[in-house]
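Dear colleague,

Thank you for sharing your sequence with our group. We've completed the structure prediction you requested, and as agreed, I am returning the results in plain text so they can be pasted directly into your records. Please verify that the sequence below matches your submission; if there's any discrepancy, let me know and we will rerun it promptly.
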Amino acid sequence: MIAIRPATAADTTAMDRMLRGLAASLGQSDKYLGSSAALALHGFGPEPAFFARLATEDDQAVGMVVYFWEFSTWRAQRGVFIQDLFVNPELRGTGLGKRLLLAAAEHGRSVDAAYLRLSVDNANLGAARFYQRLGFRVMEEDSLMLLHGEAYQALQSGAVS
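Please find the predicted structure tokens below.
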């Protein structure tokens, strides 16, 4: 029996292991810079930056969803942004991923969230098919953009012209 429950600070080692597994499965191990300490600091303090639900079987973490609240000014509604969804490879195809998304959506209901949003790595075709089967659609009108590192520091300091 696989149970789904809110993650706690005691779960950060398992969460870090699953995030490392996710990065490895995408061939991007070198891009994962997280740690259990960072997860504990940012997810389980007085103002958590994210929430997580863990799937456990016999007290072992076998899946998780990491998410946070967002707000759409155009929809005038709060939503849930799914940052990461991980299911142990041997449990994929069992419906556990859908159950984890449902757990995040149910938590979103407590803050009147009206939608789920996520991004999918372009190389992860299996995940894209999974999300599309659930009813997610590609947002053709939007492109994700990122400012980080030196460019972000330049903006912060006002050095961008």
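Summary note from our side: The helical segments are 12-25, 36-43, 96-109, 125-134, 149-157.

Kind regards,
the structure core
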